[in-house]
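Hi,

I'm pasting everything inline rather than attaching a file, because the server keeps stripping attachments. The sequence lines come first, and each chain or strand is labelled.
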Amino acid sequence: MPMSSKRPGRRPGASSTRDDILASARKLFAVNGIDKTSIRAIATEAGVDPALIHHYFGTKLDLFRAVVQLPVDPSVVLQPLREVPIDQLGVTIPRLIVTLWDSELGANVLAVFRAALTGADDGLVRAFFREVLVDIIAERVDNPVGSGVLRAEFVISQMSGILVTRYIMRIEPLASLTVDQITATVGPNIQRYLTGELTGLTQ
Amino acid sequence: MPMSSKRPGRRPGASSTRDDILASARKLFAVNGIDKTSIRAIATEAGVDPALIHHYFGTKLDLFRAVVQLPVDPSVVLQPLREVPIDQLGVTIPRLIVTLWDSELGANVLAVFRAALTGADDGLVRAFFREVLVDIIAERVDNPVGSGVLRAEFVISQMSGILVTRYIMRIEPLASLTVDQITATVGPNIQRYLTGELTGLTQ
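And the predicted assembly:
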């Protein structure tokens, strides 16, 4: 797929308004998270009509995606996480995510992640992890009740570590393993975080 | 322990030479790694006598520690990793490392790690992971022969992920767990990387 600078919904002369909206959204998402930031609040911050935000960007998650320059809709990409049997989540998560990171879209994710690690956009990436990824997974594995969020966070710790070692530090031979090899190796560990008995957390 | 700016071996007027040595060491460690960088090569690069480096800094690992401003000797801190039974490594690694990161020394480690993630000092941290941490662990768990390095790298992926989620992104409640809770939760997963059958890697 060739690179393209075309943006749907963009009109000549409208770039300043778009940029104002993006700047306001970036600020509010970072401070308050996705859930607690309304389109109305962003519109007020940017000094525009809420309808204009919907016109330019679509839904709130679409706007978030634009803010972090994510070229895919996270809720679509992550849909399998809602659908596979729970005992398959352990292998589904690394297969899905490592495939995404290995793809040409991965560079954007890496850029956002790097920015978060250096302090910039810290709130944005936390918001993404907490409200997009954690929420999808946590409610599916909340057994015993109340354990779901921590289970999901340990999964994120393992996946963040793969991101750091494979894509940022590029330590070999890990960086050259196939998606299948990564999946077979980390999958059972992720499954334990999701459905294993984590005695250390309940004591 | 109170903070102190005293440095053993430092003499008035010698700071420029010290800085030259540190700059040369930093450059060569980053490019060639620790093993392949000799004190002699650093001395040549800095335009000083090798004996002066030993006088100011001690051993090559002491010099590396000074370069990354690590206030502890990694080979001393990591000594338990050489001594505990192999089936105890899984819990020993997170207990040792998370305790270190939680301590007042942890801030330095975090600073070095952050620098690595942003691109600066990338080689230095990779050198540390590969030649200090991987080498200690890999040779102990090299079963079947040749699997040790990858086993160690997956351990590093999990520990890097704890560092990112607990200390950099500070996602809660994970960031507020005790060392014991982290250890009990990630320990068995790390043990699997070290001594489990990783069929994905041998196929």
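Confidence is low (pLDDT under 50) at residues 1-13 of chain A.

If the labels don't parse on your end, tell me and I'll reformat.
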